[in-house]
Design brief:
The chain has 152 residues and is an all-alpha fold. The chain has helices spanning 3-12, 20-27, 33-95, 97-106.
């Protein structure tokens, strides 16, 4: 059957007869503003909820990162304090006068000076009033003589 024959038959039958107004009204739908408003509110609420959840997750991730960083810094600090204490012990050992004297005697062959090997230099004072003017130039086991003249 052709399309014309079907259209004329449907228009002529009383059961299928629809007025032009009803036919136009059947395809025209009005928007339900309440439903649109409700959907918009639901979408905005869902968006805010997603943003809040993402914000909480991001803050937790940042907290975990900072926690790992803090742990690494604490372990680094402990290593540095241990290294510092080892270096202090080593420094005190190296500064020990007994060790220095022992090395000087054994490795360098040094010995304490004899009394006639030590000479003291005079203190230079332009006016000749220095404290060392009355002192001997060689070392001895006797206590030094204090000069009688001069500034005290």
């Amino acid at each position: 059957m052709s399309a014309r024959a079907t259209a004329s038959r449907s228009a002529s039958s009383p059961r299928w007869r629809v007025s032009q107004e009803q036919q136009g009204a059947r395809f025209h739908r009005e928007r339900d503003r309440r439903r649109l408003l409700t959907m918009a509110r639901a979408l905005v609420s869902a968006g805010l909820l997603v943003v809040l959840v993402l914000g909480v997750v991001a803050s937790r991730v940042q907290l975990v990162r900072l926690s790992y960083r803090l742990d690494s810094l604490r372990s680094f600090r402990a290593e540095m304090e241990e290294s510092r204490s080892r270096l202090r012990v080593e420094l005190d050992t190296l500064r020990s006068l007994a060790r220095i004297e022992g090395k000087a005697r054994t490795e360098l062959g040094m010995a304490p000076p004899a009394a006639n090997q030590v000479q003291l230099a005079r203190e230079f004072v332009p006016s000749g009033q220095g404290l060392s003017m009355g002192a001997k130039l060689t070392a001895s086991a006797e206590p030094p003589v204090r000069p009688t003249s001069g500034v005290r």
